[in-house]
C-alpha cells in the first residue's frame, strides 16, 4: 500500500509563532483506522520550495494531506504552487463559487472568491467549521492551516475518498521503569525485534523536575503480540528487581 504523508505549510510554523497540531490530529485519526503516517514535512510559504516539495510528493504515489496556504491573501501560495506542479490552470470552482456566494453574498467579490480558485478538475473538500471548502486532486488533500478546520476535513477525506483504506488494529502498551537505564534493555529489545519483526518496540527516557530518570518501555503491535511483549518486559524487570508500573495508553477515536 502507498504511504500516507502530511505537509504542514506556513511561515508562522517555522518561526515558532504557532505550534503545529496537525501531526497529532492526523496521527490519531489514522491510528483509529489501523493506519499510520509514513512521513511529515514542515514548509514555509516560499513558492519555490513549495513547488519542489509538491513535485516530489506527487511523484511518490502517496496519499498526502496538505495543511495551510489556501487562503486569499498574497502570502497564501499553496493553491498556485499545486497548480504549477500539476500543469493545470487555476480556475474558479463553480460549486465553490455557489458556496461562497451563499455564505457572503456580494462580499464574496472581489477577494474571497480567490479561496475557491483551484487547479482545474479539483474536487471540493468540505469544511464543516465555516463552510469555505478546500480541494483534492491527484491523491493530495488541501485544507486550511487552522487545526479546528483541518481536523474534520481530514476525517471527511478518510471516510469518503479514502474510505477504502484500512489497516490491522494494533494495540499500544507500555510500562514505566523507575530509575532504569536504556543500555540495560538493548539486548532484550533486539531479541524481541528479531522474534516479532512487525512489532514497533520503543524506549523513551524521561527526567522529572528533580532529574530522576525513568524509561517508558512499550510496544505497538497485533494485540496478542503486544500483550506477549509487554508481559516479557514485566518478567525481565521482575527478574532484575527493577521497579515498574503500568502506563495507560488512551486508544484513539475516529
From TrEMBL:
Pfam families: MoCF_biosynth (PF00994). InterPro entries: CinA, MoaB/Mog-like_dom_sf, MoaB/Mog_dom. Residues 5-165 form the MoaB/Mog domain. Signal peptide: none annotated. This is Molybdopterin binding domain protein. It comes from Thiomicrospira cyclica (strain DSM 14477 / JCM 11371 / ALM1).
Amino acid at each position: 500500500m502507498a504511504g500516507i504523508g502530511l505537509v504542514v505549510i506556513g511561515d508562522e510554523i517555522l518561526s515558532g509563532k504557532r505550534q503545529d497540531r496537525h501531526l497529532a490530529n492526523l496521527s490519531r485519526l489514522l491510528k483509529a483506522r489501523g493506519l499510520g503516517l509514513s512521513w511529515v514535512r514542515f514548509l514555509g510559504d516560499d513558492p519555490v520550495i513549495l513547488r519542489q516539495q509538491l513535485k516530489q510528493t506527487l511523484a511518490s504515489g502517496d496519499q498526502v494531506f496538505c495543511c495551510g496556504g489556501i487562503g486569499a491573501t498574497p502570502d497564501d501560495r499553496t493553491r498556485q504552487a499545486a497548480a504549477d506542479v500539476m500543469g493545470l490552470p487555476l480556475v474558479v470552482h463553480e460549486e465553490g463559487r455557489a458556496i461562497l456566494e451563499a455564505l457572503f453574498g456580494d462580499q464574496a467579490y472581489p477577494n474571497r472568491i480567490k479561496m475557491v480558485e483551484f487547479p482545474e478538475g479539483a474536487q471540493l473538500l468540505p469544511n464543516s467549521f465555516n463552510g469555505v471548502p478546500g480541494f483534492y486532486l491527484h491523491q493530495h488533500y488541501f485544507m486550511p492551516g487552522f487545526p479546528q478546520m483541518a481536523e474534520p476535513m481530514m476525517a471527511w477525506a478518510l471516510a469518503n475518498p479514502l474510505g477504502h483504506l484500512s489497516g490491522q488494529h494494533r494495540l499500544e502498551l507500555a510500562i514505566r521503569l523507575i530509575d532504569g537505564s536504556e543500555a540495560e534493555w538493548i539486548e532484550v529489545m533486539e531479541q524481541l525485534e528479531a522474534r516479532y519483526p512487525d512489532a514497533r518496540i520503543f524506549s523513551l527516557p524521561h527526567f522529572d523536575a528533580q532529574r530522576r530518570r525513568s524509561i517508558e518501555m512499550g510496544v505497538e503491535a497485533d494485540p496478542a503480540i503486544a500483550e506477549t511483549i509487554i508481559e516479557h518486559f514485566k518478567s525481565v524487570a521482575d527478574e532484575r528487581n527493577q521497579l515498574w508500573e503500568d502506563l495507560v495508553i488512551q486508544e484513539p477515536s475516529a
